[in-house]
């Protein structure tokens, strides 16, 4: 749950599960065999 603050930069989400989690993305690509994963938000990069 997000803890609201008068100053938005000080707000904090205490949920340990990220909304965008590399582990969840990697499950869709079983051929990946790596220890690290970088997620990009650029569609052109994903298509290549």
Short description:
The chain has 48 residues and is α+β, with helices and mostly antiparallel strands. The protein has helices at 22-27, 43-47, and strands at residues 2-3, 12-13. It has a two-stranded antiparallel ribbon.
How many extended strands?
Answer: 2
- End-to-end Cα distance, whole Å, is 37 Å
Poorly predicted spans: none
- What string gives the helices and strands in order? EEHH
Largest β-sheet summary: 2 strands, antiparallel
General description of the model:
- The chain is 23% helix and 8% strand.
- The chain has 2 helices and 2 strands, in the order E-E-H-H.
- It has helices at 22-27, 43-47; strands at 2-3, 12-13.
- Strand 1 and strand 2 (12-13) form a beta hairpin.
- The chain is elongated.
Topology diagram in text:
Elements: E1 2-3, E2 12-13, H1 22-27, H2 43-47
Short key terms for the protein model shown above:
48 residues; alpha+beta; elongated
């Amino acid at each position: 749950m997000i803890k609201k603050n008068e100053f938005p930069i000080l707000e904090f989400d205490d949920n340990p599960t990220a909304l965008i989690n590399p582990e969840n993305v990697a499950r869709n690509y079983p051929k990946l065999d790596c220890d690290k994963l970088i997620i990009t938000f650029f569609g052109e990069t994903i298509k290549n």
